[in-house]
Structure formats: structure tokens, C-alpha cells
Amino acid sequence: MWLQRDITLRPRARGVHLVTGEVLGALPELEEVGVGLLHLLLLHTSASLTVNENASPDVRRDLETWFGAAVPEDFTWTHTLEGPDDMPAHVKASLMGPSLTLPLRHGAPVLGTWQGLYLCEHRDAGGARTVCATVHGEPR
């Protein structure tokens, strides 16, 4: 089985946002996969995807706080035409990465007990974000 679909994630403010339910809810066909792979590619250069702890909101806040300190807006950026948050967003997105590849087993991604999928929105108002999801696997 092969499936490819673009998933539009709703707009979010700057921060680290749990999107596991939103992504998986857009892929009901995953239930048909016994073993396979799910590849997710975020089609943007100022946001990123990651897997991290899904229980404590403190983790999300701490990640955002660290990124703000590590990649400040008040730096001597050359690329400034799209606002002061744009170039720092590009750097953060490069550090985190635009894609994830997850194993599939028994109709669902294999994630640890405390793991979830995150959209890291690195702009103040990045707008809706599109993820290209590709599923490849054997039927259950």
C-alpha cells in the first residue's frame, strides 16, 4: 500500500504544539497497515517537526524558551525583509528539521509512551502549515 496526502495544520502562534491527533486523524487509512513507514515532510522553511514528550506542557515551554535564547531576533541578520522573526525562524527550522520518519505497526505509528508529534512554529504568526504525509506498508 502506498498513500500520499497533504495535511493542512491549523494556524498557531509561535511555540511548540502537540499535533499528534491532528496528523493521525487526517490519515484514517493507517488502520489498514500492519507494518510500514510514515514519512512526514513539513513544506515550510520557518517551522519544524519533532518527536518529544507529550505529557508535560513545561517541556514545550522550555523548548521554546531555549530556542528564543539560542537564536535571538536581535542579532545582525542580513535577511530581514520578512520581519525580525523570519531569519531566526529559518535557523531554528534548520536545527530541528522539516521531516520525521516513523515506523508503523498494527495500524499506528510506533511511539513511546510519552512521545508525541510536535509542530514547532518559529514565527509569531506563521499561518496554516502543510505536511506531506507518505505511507508505505503491508496490509494488516
From TrEMBL:
Transmembrane domains' residue ranges: none
Origin: domain of life: Bacteria
A Pfam cross-reference name: YjbQ
Family classification: Belongs to the UPF0047 family.
Protein name: Secondary thiamine-phosphate synthase enzyme YjbQ
UniProt cross-references to InterPro entries, sorted A to Z: UPF0047_YjbQ-like (IPR001602), YjbQ-like_sf (IPR035917)
